[in-house]
Amino acid sequence: MQRYLFIDRDGTLIVEPPDTQQIDSCERLRLLPRTLSVLRWAQQVGGYRLVMITNQDGLGSESFPEERFWMIQRLLMDIFSSEGITWYGIHIDRSREESPSFYRKPSPLLLLPYMESGIDKAHSFVIGDRYTDMRLAQRLGLSGIWITNPIHPQEHLPFAHIVKGWEEVQAILKRSVFSIQLHRETKETSVHLSLSLYGEGRVTVHTGIGFFDHMLTLLAFHAGWDLVLKAEGDLHVDVHHTVEDVAITLGQALYRLLKDKRGIHRYGQAASSLRWLPMDEALSVVAIDMSGRGLLTWRLPLAESLGGIAPSLWKHFFETLAREGAFTLHIQGYGEDAHHLIEAAFKGVGRALREALHRSEEANAVPSTKGAL
Ligand SMILES: [Mg+2]
């Protein structure tokens, strides 16, 4: 499944002059801030194909000669290619609003070949600065990203994100690219999750085990994830299957989202970034390596059950999470109160994961001398 960004040109990639609403000379060519860096990121890290779709009213007529358009378009293409940005398709409609062609936006006809060739609709977007761009998104069954342009009126649409510029576009794309929905069903449990790695800490967890919900919420919040997790398990037997299957599902979600681990930090150390993770008298030290090798080292002196979950099952949770997520996880700590101790561990794992999964906007290398993790 291929992800696409269908992108308008004037007012979206380049600034539309308020006086003429037409870029009529190379001297007036200006790109919107961050356009280049976000497009490069979308292509190289996000795996998007970029497609330009633009209405150029009356192109080729006396009032809008070919030469004037192509002089600017060629310069624009040179700028993109100098930054390593390539366009998978460029579609220009020359008709006028009062006598539109069959293909003029918001007609989706030009883009139908893309829609019929294995497009990943959930992660593809139309990006533009006009209502017609958003209507195109709607007709294609995609989400729109509407960049504010003072020249054109804006209204709230349920299928469109309204943003001020490309920085916010990148945040939306990042949330979308690194998000996953998983459903795991066995005779013992049913687990649904929706996870976005670079979210805002919006977390809803229902497993039927209140204390476990609390711990998972802390982990996800401190990791910076958006997480919705619902589990229904055979709690009439005991808590084991539910705890284990939540760990399996969460670990598998991480594994699938990280694929070749391109662009991530790799190492996360709650101990070095925060020095320690204290919870009153308790303290945890957590270190993570997204190594591709799932294992747990556990030195946490838990001596009693919490929320009906025995010390061995807490260990089993992290062991399973690390194995399914294919990362190396070290957890150690001390403390007198068991609640404080396990809470420090969950928060520490969240913080360490946040650090290990951090992506710089530019880096796209695999963080290993082997070239693979
Ligand atoms: Mg436009």
Describe this structure in words.
- It is a single chain.
- The chain is an alpha/beta fold and 373 residues long.
- The chain contains 10 helices and 15 strands.
- Helix 2 links the parallel strand 2 and strand 3.
- The mean pLDDT is 91.
- The site of magnesium ion has 7 residues, from loops.
CATH superfamily of the largest domain: Imidazole glycerol phosphate dehydratase, domain 1
Identify the overall geometry: elongated
Quick one: biggest sheet?
6 strands, parallel
The second-level CATH architecture of the largest domain is 2-Layer Sandwich
Report how far apart the termini are: 23 Å
Beta-strand share of residues: 15-25%
Our count of domains comes out at 2
CA radius of gyration: 25 Å
Question: Nutshell version of this structure?
Answer:
The protein is of the alpha/beta class and 373 residues long.
Question: How are the SSEs placed, and which strands pair?
Answer:
Layout: E1 3-7, H1 35-44, E2 48-55, H2 66-82, E3 89-93, H3 112-115, E4 125-128, H4 131-140, E5 143-147, E6 160-163, H5 166-177, E7 179-185, E8 189-196, E9 203-206, H6 210-223, E10 226-233, H7 240-258, E11 267-269, H8 270-273, E12 277-279, E13 282-289, E14 295-299, H9 311-325, E15 328-334, H10 338-356
Parallel strand pairs: 1-2, 1-4, 2-3, 4-5, 5-6, 9-10, 14-15
Antiparallel strand pairs: 7-8, 8-10, 11-13, 12-13, 13-15
The chain binds magnesium ion (MG).
The site of magnesium ion (MG) has 7 residues, from loops.
